[in-house]
Specification:
Elements (H helix, E strand, L loop, with lengths): L14 E7 L2 E6 L4 E5 L4 E4 L8 E7 L2 E6 L4 E4 L7 E2 L8 E6 L5 E5 L4 E4 L7 E2 L8 E8 L2 E6 L2 E6 L4
Antiparallel strand pairs: 1-2, 2-3, 3-4, 5-6, 6-7, 7-8, 9-10, 10-11, 11-12, 13-14, 14-15
Length: 163
């Protein structure tokens, strides 16, 4: 059964990703759409977004959130989504996916063969060299220092060198 009547989305923006973070469900979407599920009301409520550009993903832990998307834009919140600030530089390509590594570092990937690593919850990033560069659509951590990326030319394992 559709839940469209339980989602604060008056502009009918596309919903791009959903993720459970610290026990709460979040949705991000087109035109800066940012929603958090309210268990009591049983609906997704709009949260003040840090951007009017499309968001393609959200990740986080321990009250630290990162929403990311169009044109390499990423935003961080250290208070569970109440306040947002611009994250460190991640280039200009669309940030398509992200994951949190087992050691707590944030990793974002983009559609221009970019991979961006942050050890400070998004305040700064360093670029990771890809073994097989390709536009990346998704990433998942599979071991303490290894991820699998899926992109235009298939999938491959990628080592993430610890600091």
């Amino acid at each position: 059964m559709p839940w469209l009547d339980r989602v604060d989305n008056p502009r009918s923006s596309h919903l791009n990703a959903i993720r459970r973070i610290d026990g709460r469900l979040w949705i991000v979407g087109e035109q800066g759409l940012l929603l958090r599920y309210d268990e009591n009301l049983r609906r997704f409520l709009a949260v003040k977004s840090p951007t009017d550009g499309s968001l393609f993903g959200i990740l986080g832990q321990g009250g630290n959130l990162m929403a990311f998307g169009l044109a390499g834009r990423a935003f961080i919140s250290q208070d569970g989504g109440r306040n947002w600030s611009k994250a460190g530089d991640t280039g200009t390509a669309g940030l398509s996916a992200g994951t949190i590594l087992p050691d707590g570092r944030f990793l974002l990937v983009d559609t221009n063969a970019g991979m961006w690593l942050s050890g400070d919850k998004g305040k700064s990033f360093s670029q990771v060299r890809l073994a097989q560069p390709m536009p990346i659509f998704d990433v998942v951590a599979v071991a303490p220092h290894t991820v699998v990326v899926v992109g235009l030319w298939g999938e491959n394992r990628q080592a993430i060198v610890p600091k």
